[in-house]
Amino acid sequence: MKAKLAIILKGMGMGAANVIPGVSGGTIALITGIFERLIAAIKSFDIEALQLLLKGEIKLLLKKVDFEFLVLLFSGIAVSILSLAKILDYLFIEHSIMIWSYFFGLILASIFFVIKTIKNWSLSTLISLIIGTVIAATIAMGVPASPNAAIYYLLICGAVATCSMILPGLSGSFVLVLMGNYQLIMIDAINNRDLAIIIPVGIGAILGLILFSRMLSWILKKYHDQTIGVLTGFIAGSLLTLWPWKEKVFQLNDPTILTGYHWAIPNIQSTEFLLAMIFIVVGILTIYFTERVAK
């Protein structure tokens, strides 16, 4: 029972991360020790699984796809996303610097725990780390697109964002910001239970996960340390997105369209800065204790 509850809680952690632009559910999966199991489970939806389904061998099918693990994990993710969407919407409006500081601490600590999983350092691993950092930082400085509710675009958003969600350091929510559909999907559609938006995004997410997981599983097995290096770089580069002292920049002729961010240097003598440092430390401690529980 404890093991099942742990999986649900890890799913809730992933769900919470996926709601926040800049935080990756894959990072939570990696530091809680379920990342490779998740990839393997998703990858197991293949031709053999389809054959078992057609033959009616349900028990063998459920065992092959690690069904119980996936149900528990995605239940936690769903509960977290549905319950946190409204709360985070309020927190980002009323206490943005404090909440960003907490997430900054989370990701800062994650770098240390993820990089520890690299078994053998080499030049290729170091280069992979640098490449991952540059890619994530480049994405963070990208210019968001305009909102688009077309079905084909929602399918693409679901596929791309969900693949990003399982990649540590690449935030699916921030990808949606860049694609222009974060507010439409993660806030409006979820809070209003708008199935016309949710269903196409969900279909795209499932297809993207199945296809992408197979490639990622192969890369992890063949180039484990280099892959972890890239993923660690993704996490490090995402810190730019999470910098607490930034202001949204909107399009001049349309104040509802986000075009980027303006990063600022904080006033280190202010009470706000002191509180932000406390929240960063709390974020670091959260990851530390999460790691302890995961072990």
Explained architecture:
The mean pLDDT is 81. The protein has helices spanning 2-19, 25-31, 35-43, 47-55, 58-64, 67-94, 96-115, 123-140, 151-166, 172-178, 182-192, 195-222, 224-237, 239-242, 271-294, and strands spanning 246-251, 254-263. It contains 15 helices and two strands. The chain starts with a helix and ends with a helix. It has one domain (2-294). The chain is mainly alpha-helical and 295 residues long.
Summary, kept brief:
By secondary structure, this protein is mainly alpha-helical. It has helices at residues 2-19, 25-31, 35-43, 47-55, 58-64, 67-94, 96-115, 123-140, 151-166, 172-178, 182-192, 195-222, 224-237, 239-242, 271-294; strands spanning 246-251, 254-263.
Mean pLDDT: 81
Subunit arrangement of the protein? single chain
Helix content: over 70%
Query: Helical stretch count?
Result: 15
Q: Going across the major beta sheet, what is the strand order?
A: 1-2
